[in-house]
Hints:
- By secondary structure, the protein is mainly α.
- Helix content is 75%, strand content 0%.
- It has helices at 7-31, 45-52, 56-74, 79-104, 114-141.
- Helix 1 runs antiparallel to helix 3 (56-74) and helix 3 packs antiparallel against helix 4.
- The radius of gyration is 17 Å and the shape is elongated.
Amino acid sequence: MKAIYNQMDQRLALLEVIGGLTIILFWIGWFLDILKSIGPSNPLYETYVAFEKAFPLPDAWVVLLLFISAYGIWQQKSYGLFTGIAAGGGLVFLGLIDTSFYLQHNLYQYDVLLLPINIACIGGGLLLIARFGIIIKESFMQ
Length: 142
C-alpha cells in the first residue's frame, strides 16, 4: 500500500511533533513541581499524585507513536498512517481517563488548563484516527 499525503497531512505531522513535545514538556514541569494542579495542603493531593504517576510510561508510548507517525508522513511511508491511528487511540484513551478521574474528584476547579488539555487529547486523537482512516480507505479503493 502506498500512502499519498497532501499538504494538510504534512501540517498534521507537524502538530503530532508539537503535541509530543508538549507532553514531554508537561512531564518535565510536573516533576519539577511547576505544573501540579493541586498542592500538598489539598486533601486530594495524595490521590492526585498517585493517579498522575501512572501516566509517564503510557504518555511516553503515545509520544513515540506521534513522532514515528510524523516521520513516516514526512518520508511518504504508509507506517505513518498506522502509527498515527495508534497514537490517536492512545490520546483518546488518555484524555478520557483523565476526564473521568477529574470529574469524579472535582479537580477541574483547581486548574483551568486541565479541561482544554483533555479536550485537545480527545479531539486530536479523533482527528488522527479520522484523517488517517480516510487515507487508508482511499488507498485500498485505488
